[in-house]
Amino acid sequence: MLKSDSVSKQDADNAAGDFAAKQATVQSSQANVRRLEELQAFEKIYAPFDGVITARNTDIGALIDSGSSGGARTELFHIVQPDKLRVYVSVPQVYSQAAKPGLSADLVLSEFPGRVFHGTLVRTAEAIDQSTRTLLVEIRVDNPTGTLFSGAYAEVHLKLPTATSAFILPVNALLFRSEGLRVAAVTDGKHAELKAITLGHDFGSEVEVVAGLTGDESIVVNPPDSLVSGEEVRIAQPAAGGSQQ
Predict the structure, then answer these.
(1) Considering the domain boundaries, does residue 245 fall inside one?
(2) Can you list the positions of beta strands (E) in 164-241?
(3) How far apart are CA 56 and CA 23, in angstroms?
(4) For 3-53, how does the pLDDT look when each residue is reduced to its tens digit (9 = 90+)?
(5) d(CA 176, CA 236)
(6) H/E element, 73
């Protein structure tokens, strides 16, 4: 109508301004509706993955505080994904270099005697814990039927490749000297030699030796504290029907 001079330019400008103002009001109202819809959407909680709720710390009518206002922050739910379990194991430092992703691991639980669950080492912390001197590793275990429960305690047997052979000795064969841990070995059948060793696992009454022995030695059991290298010894022969002492 402005082009045909049916209305004045002032009336056209007033109408255009009024339209723009009303359009802005509509957009503001739409934004407010979307805000209210977002707030109402908090009535529902969506889990990030399929799983099972193992703990619920709230109930209908309870006040939920995120902690941003100074109140106590409380977790609403605990959810677990039982079909794939992550098992964390602390590997002793002496075996840390052999614990690489891809190694197989066997899990044994007391509630399943004689049954073995297989897993795979998927990642490591790549750092030794300063307090325990161990390497934290993660083992992934498939649990499609939910037989294993999250949080359960299990024994893990890792099949670690070792560059050297390990030996098992009784603890009463160890000598604790100021220069370090030693064992008395007889290599020529006549003289004792004190050898420095490196221990692996401690099994209580026995220990694992990972370095210092070749396997050709005879080890002295219950050696006296006064024993020194080069001292002449005599190997006792086992009695008939008995064992060597």
Answers:
(1) no
(2) 167-170, 174-177, 180-186, 192-196, 198-202, 206-211, 218-219
(3) 46
(4) 666 667 777 777 888 888 899 999 999 999 999 988 888 778 888 878 788
(5) 24
(6) none
